[in-house]
């Protein structure tokens, strides 16, 4: 007969094993985060049938990844008023970054055009919807990209409302590689691979001889990044998001 001295530790081990098994199912749930490039705090609701996930995010900030159920979600974006209402397909096992951009002050009505109800294949990281100038809109990047050891993947997005096209260069010592040439507002750069390590990112106004932004960054092996060009109080800036 088992004594209490052995029964209690055994029960604890069984409970730990049970919790571990439950956590394994989460690896198939898609992960979704939001970067808010607007000049207003936002509330995002991801609604699917009877379930709903809320994300509160300040301006020029990134949320944590949230676990969602796979399938079609109705995304609602609000500040002091409703800004966006779109349907987005979220696939099992994937990881996404959604960039909300535009000028909420220019939105006199909800930007409510929607994509197809089917799941979307987000090519190497991007899908967006742009409508009518600077109305609030969004871009979705797929964050899971297979990379060889020693390589990093860079993407870019111009979210700087009212600012001119830019050129983005990646410098490593005396060598330089172009990530984007004449990148215009609301346009993405899809995945470009570089050798991992410390590099200098330089952002130029199109045709300018000197960079408006220069920033050193350590790009890690087998990681993907999104470089977001933004406008804060009429000053250009960049945010670098790691997957």
UniProtKB/TrEMBL annotation:
Database matches in PROSITE patterns: PROKAR_LIPOPROTEIN
Organism domain of life: Bacteria
Protein name as annotated: DUF4397 domain-containing protein
Taxonomic lineage from the root: Bacteria, Pseudomonadati, Bacteroidota, Flavobacteriia, Flavobacteriales
